[in-house]
Write a structure and sequence with these properties.
Distance between the termini: 23 Å
Strand order of the largest sheet: 1-2
Number of strands: 2
Largest sheet: 2 strands, antiparallel
Oligomer: single chain
Bound molecules: zinc ion
Strand content: 5-15%
């Protein structure tokens, strides 16, 4: 096995922490399901809320939902990758089972497939 698990584990854990921080800024963990994140409305001074502010808040909230969705997808991929490290399955293509090139993993430690199958997963 040519893949340096420890090296990628560190990279994944660093990215996971970063994502948790980013997610914390636009959302919060779903209290009923801690691996799920939901967007939170932006905190603005509601004492001066007029119609414009309300519309702005809704737009901000929708933006947060989009950001949370993107971040959450990455977050889940990272968690899946960390699980794979635990199960000694990290770095194998989900389609063909071959080892993913270290170069590709360097660029994207949560890659789930080899380069050939990157559009199929
Ligand atoms: Zn493959």
């Amino acid at each position: 096995m040519a893949i340096d698990y420890e090296h990628f584990k560190k990279k994944l854990e660093t990215e996971k922490k970063l994502l948790e921080k980013e997610l914390g800024e636009v959302g919060r963990r779903n209290p009923d399901n801690l691996s799920d994140w939901e967007a939170t409305p932006t905190k603005k001074d509601s004492s001066q809320a007029d119609e414009n502010t309300t519309a702005d808040n809704i737009e901000d909230y929708e933006e947060n939902v989009a950001i949370v969705n993107t971040l959450e997808t990455r977050y889940q991929d990272i968690k899946t990758s960390l699980d794979k490290i635990k199960n000694n399955k990290y770095g194998l293509c989900e389609i063909c089972g071959k080892e993913i090139h270290t170069e590709r993993l360097e660029a994207n430690p949560s890659a789930r497939t080899c380069r050939e199958h990157m559009n199929l997963a």
